[in-house]
């Protein structure tokens, strides 16, 4: 039975086990991987997910709530169960699968997570989804070039991210691998490294601004 969209069941602040299992995808599916701490998730995240589903013709999008970002201060991090519950309330599109399977991994690094996802799903076509605002720090991620060579990447426009897009080390390093936005529905067919930048509606919401407003 599908999880109740009002939020996951929590026992002693522990997630229901199904959130800790990697979602199932059938052979040949095109699946977007949208990871982040989502601290907290907001409509801007939902907008990125929905644009990705539509423009990339995804069969599924895995909304991957991570235990924590090694590059960010964890002192203000909401409990994982709360971030999953809030994500479920936002994830209205039926193709979205909210998951926190990375919690049971012995790593918090994206490169290691994606390598495991690939090994467990050799017949699924994955695309890494990221907001353009993440470009300014992407080159600081562990094994960031390995990530770019593992799966095609779709970068979704975000307010104020134009400079990051133009000046980022990632886009400069892999400039040769850029795919025209008009061909984004076929991105899954490309061998990595391959990436595209997708324009569309943008939300000015940000997790840091929400935390500041709430006094966190």
Radius of gyration, rounded? 16 Å
Which stretches of 5+ consecutive residues score pLDDT under 50? 1-12, 207-213
User: Which class do the helix and strand fractions yield?
Assistant: alpha/beta
H/I helix tally: 8
Taken in chain order, the helices and strands follow as EEEHEHEHEHHEHHEH
Distance between the termini: 36 Å
Cα shape: globular
Side-by-side strand order of the widest sheet: 5-4-3-6-7-8
Mean pLDDT: 85
Overview of this structure, please?
This protein is an alpha/beta fold and 216 residues long. The chain is 30% helix and 17% strand. It contains eight helices and eight strands. It has helices at residues 43-55, 80-90, 110-120, 135-138, 144-150, 162-167, 169-173, 207-213; strands spanning 10-11, 14-15, 30-36, 60-65, 96-99, 125-131, 153-156, 195-198. A six-stranded parallel β-sheet has the order 5-4-3-6-7-8. A two-stranded antiparallel ribbon has the order 1-2. Strand 3, helix 1 (43-55) and strand 4 (60-65) form a beta-alpha-beta unit. The termini are far apart. The relative contact order is 0.18. Mean pLDDT is 85; it is low at 1-12 and 207-213.
């Amino acid at each position: 039975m599908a999880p109740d969209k009002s939020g996951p069941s929590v026992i002693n602040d522990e997630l229901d086990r199904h959130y800790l299992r990697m979602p199932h995808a059938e052979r040949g599916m095109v699946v977007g991987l949208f990871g982040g701490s989502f601290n907290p998730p907001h409509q801007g995240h939902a907008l990125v997910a929905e644009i990705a589903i539509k423009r990339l013709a995804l069969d599924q999008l895995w909304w991957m709530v991570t235990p924590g970002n090694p590059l960010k201060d964890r002192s203000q991090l909401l409990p994982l169960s709360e971030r999953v519950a809030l994500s479920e309330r936002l994830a209205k599109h039926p193709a979205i699968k909210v998951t926190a399977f990375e919690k049971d991994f012995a790593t918090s690094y994206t490169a290691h997570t994606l390598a495991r996802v690939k090994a467990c799903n050799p017949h699924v076509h994955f695309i890494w989804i990221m907001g353009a605002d993440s470009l300014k720090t992407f080159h600081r991620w562990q094994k960031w070039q390995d990530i770019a060579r593992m799966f095609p990447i779709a970068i979704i426009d975000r307010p104020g991210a134009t400079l990051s897009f133009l000046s980022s080390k990632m886009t400069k390093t892999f400039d040769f691998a850029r795919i025209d936005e008009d061909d984004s529905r076929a991105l899954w067919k490309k061998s990595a490294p391959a990436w595209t930048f997708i324009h569309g509606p943008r939300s000015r919401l940000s997790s840091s601004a929400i935390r500041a407003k709430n006094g966190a």
